[in-house]
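JOB MANIFEST
job_type = single_chain_structure
chain_count = 1
residues = 74
[input]
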Amino acid sequence: MKFSANRTWIISLVLLGLGAACIIAENGFYQYVDDKGVLHESMFMPLGMLSLVAGTLVLLLFVMQAVRRLFTNK
């Protein structure tokens, strides 16, 4: 495995972990409904979702690189 494949794998895991941590923080600490019935949220939910989507895309890129490398080596 080349260094770029390892780097891609690590980047995807970091993004997925960051996304999961942001969503857990959002659900645990920052959501509430005030006296007027307005829902208050922080930026953790959009940041978490963007990180999860980016991590998934980078993970798919890693898988595509691995499959391409598998077929080109034969």
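[summary]
The longest strand covers residues 32-33.
Strands lie at 32-33, 39-40.
exit_status = 0
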